[in-house]
Amino acid sequence: MNDKPSDTKNQKTLSAEQHRVLNEKGTERAFASPLNDEKREGVYACAACGTQLFTSEHKYDSGSGWPSFYAPIEDSALGQTTDHDIGYARTEVHCAKCGGHMGHVFPDGPKPTGLRFCVNGASLEFKAKD
Ligand code: FE
């Protein structure tokens, strides 16, 4: 598993905030991302490398202030690590292709998976369906 993006030279141009989140496992402020309220149909790609990671089909309003999904576009799209950054174990999720940090997954999501992928909007690029 990657602690850091393995191929940062292929990353798109990132804002300072995107770099902090994607490459340094930062967390954006709750309710900071316009993608938290995004309700259109479409696909959410890794903001660093463009790989499609989530779709609107699995997005829901968790009330957390971060874009939330109950599943990724496919299981292989994401990699996982365990972090103890805030004193207890959490499962960190990142883009399997470039290693860019997405957020965390928690076991308190809705059916059918029961999972909540809590994702930084700064890590995502939304492409609305035409
Ligand atoms: Fe990526």
Reconstruct the topology from this structure:
Layout: H1 16-24, E1 42-46, E2 52-55, E3 59-60, E4 68-69, E5 78-83, E6 90-95, E7 101-106, E8 116-119, E9 124-128
Antiparallel strand pairs: 1-2, 1-9, 3-4, 4-8, 5-6, 6-7, 7-8
The chain binds fe (iii) ion.
Fe (iii) ion binds at residues 46, 48-49, 51, 95, 97-98, 100.
Summarize this entry quickly.
The protein is mostly beta strands and 130 residues long. 7% of the residues lie in helices and 31% in strands.
Q: How would you sum up this structure, described in words?
A:
The chain has 130 residues and is mainly beta. It is 7% helix and 31% strand. It has one helix spanning 16-24; strands at residues 42-46, 52-55, 59-60, 68-69, 78-83, 90-95, 101-106, 116-119, 124-128. The radius of gyration is 13 Å and the shape is globular. Bound molecules: fe (iii) ion (FE). Residues 46, 48-49, 51, 95, 97-98, 100 line the site of fe (iii) ion (FE).
